[in-house]
Design a protein that fits this description.
The protein is mostly helical and 357 residues long. Helices cover 75% and strands 2% of the residues. The protein contains 15 helices and 2 strands. The protein has helices at 2-8, 11-40, 48-55, 61-95, 108-122, 141-164, 170-193, 197-207, 216-235, 237-244, 247-252, 257-279, 285-297, 301-325, 334-352, and strands at 126-128, 136-138. Strands 1-2 form a two-stranded antiparallel sheet. Helix 3 crosses helix 4 and helix 5 packs across helix 12 (257-279). The longest helix has 35 residues, at 61-95. It starts with a helix and ends in a 5-residue tail after the last helix.
Length: 357
């Protein structure tokens, strides 16, 4: 049947889709290559041979600690968080019909950060230390994730209320996201006001965003949530394409728009909450990844969703590798690198107009 369908497709269409698949495959290969380089790079200079032997269980004990406990979890956390934030931004832009929508610009990341800060500082889910390498240790990642999710969902529900009930324009929606982000940032500052000096220093360091603080335990949770959400998004790729034609068109094609919108925003908020609760605020990946791929491959979600996922992982991994190596041995906050990358794109999209996707 598949062979018969392929024979009936015009050659130009097959070539068109093959080009998209090839682009996604090349991005995936580039991510793997950069991941290998990122494991090698760092203050303890390792050769590719040493890394390979260590991964095969034949390396020295000192190298095993560096590779298995520090660098490999860091690389995988960057890819996983990048995939989650980018695909969350991609579906938010579709559901809200707003090219500027992303977990960071809508204030969802700031809401999740406030919830995580409440759990860590007020409920004792995290212990604080004065060293820069382990400023916050999360003792109960599940409690932190639940509170981060509550903060993210509070922001999401307000945005949905404004979009559905009040019928605000895409421009006003972005402004509402900026206002909500400022509100939750102010609430986090109030928490810091009542904290000790060490706690203040620790929580400020935590909000910078750092993929290096994820261990295998946090990585497993992030991978499970991101993987399950990505499967749902991919299963609804045709529904997202229908929604691109307008809400009435999607309903005419049999799409349950309200259910799709709520479930999508729920899962996008969950993915964001998990990433922020473990890694801190990492801005603009959810904006840059989807927008970059939309311009290269177009708006067909059959290809845009996997492309945005791979691009998000690659962008965050590249940002973290740059943050670790540009003035080594000093490690810059990866959130600052992604903001340098995303802010110009945000201004570019503003200059082009909200309505253009």
């Amino acid at each position: 049947m598949r062979q018969l369908a392929a024979e009936n497709c015009p050659h130009s269409y097959l070539k068109y889709t093959q080009r998209k698949v090839l682009t996604i495959s090349l991005l995936a290969l580039l991510t793997v290559a950069l991941g290998i380089y990122a494991i090698n790079a760092g203050a303890a200079d390792l050769s590719p041979t040493q890394v390979l032997l260590t991964l095969l269980g034949k390396g020295e004990e000192r190298l095993s600690i560096i590779v298995w406990n520090i660098r490999l979890p860091r690389v995988l956390a960057a890819i996983t968080a990048g995939v989650g934030l980018s695909v969350a931004g991609c579906v938010m832009q579709n559901i809200l019909r707003n090219p500027l929508a992303s977990p960071f610009t809508l204030g969802v990341s700031q809401g999740a950060a406030f919830g995580a800060a409440v759990a860590i500082l007020a409920l004792g889910a995290g212990s604080t230390h004065s060293t820069s390498t382990d400023a916050v240790i999360i003792n109960n990642p599940y409690l932190v994730t639940v509170f981060a999710f509550a903060g993210a969902m509070a922001t999401t529900l307000i945005v949905l209320f404004l979009a559905q009930v009040r019928g605000v324009t895409p421009e006003a929606m972005v402004l509402a996201g900026v206002a909500l982000g400022s509100l939750f940032s102010a609430a986090t500052i109030i928490l810091q006001f009542f904290a000790s000096d060490v706690q203040v220093a620790s929580i400020v360091f935590w909000t910078f965003g750092d993929v290096g603080r994820a261990s295998w335990r946090e990585l497993e949770i992030m991978a499970a949530v991101t993987g399950a959400s990505l499967l749902y998004f991919l299963a609804n790729r045709w529904n997202y394409n229908a929604l691109d034609g307008g809400e009435e068109t999607a309903k005419g094609l049999g799409v349950d728009v309200e259910r799709l919108r709520l479930t999508t925003m729920f899962l996008a908020s969950l993915v964001t909450a998990v990433a922020v609760s473990f890694l801190g605020i990492i801005g603009f990946i959810g904006l840059v990844g989807p927008q970059l791929m939309r311009r290269v491959l177009g708006g067909d979600h059959r290809f845009l969703l996997p492309a945005a996922s791979v691009a998000g992982g690659l962008l965050l991994l590249a940002s973290d590798t740059l943050a670790r190596t540009i003035i080594s041995p000093v490690v810059l906050p990866v959130g600052a690198i992604t903001s340098f990358m995303g802010a110009p794109l945000f201004l570019y999209l503003l200059s082009r107009g909200y309505g253009k996707k």
